[in-house]
Amino acid sequence: MKFDNGPEFSSLAMLRWGAERNIKLHFIDPGKPTQNGKIESFNGRLRDEVLNEHWFLTLDQMRDVVETWRVRFNTHRPHGSLNYLTPAEFARRYHEEHPTTPPQLEAA
Q1: 12-18: Cβ within 8 A, 24+ apart
Q2: Does residue 105 contact residue 81 with C-beta atoms inside 8 Å?
Q3: Separation of alpha carbons 65 and 72, rounded Å
Q4: pLDDT single digits (tens) 50-93
Q5: Strand (E) positions, 1-108?
Q6: How far is CA 61 from each of CA 6, 15, 24, rounded to the nearest angstrom?
């Protein structure tokens, strides 16, 4: 898994989590967000469209708002990188055309 160098990802708790699950954590070079451009773009959208727009009073409220946004992001919102299809529509079409072949996802 690839991460930026934010404290939430480079903490001892995160390093322990990866080690316990035998997951190798990779960190981009400090000050080089272009090394992780797709995730940086996603994080910016999540921050602009959800986190900066709401004042959460409970963790359950935050989960509900983020889940509503996630469903919209994946099922109703066209993505330019998917030829302006929603991720759900892209996946449906892919599986119709390649019923036994999983999509080859680019490593982050």
Answers
A1: none
A2: no
A3: 11
A4: 999 999 999 999 999 999 999 999 899 998 888 999 989 998 99
A5: 2-3, 26-27
A6: 25, 28, 32
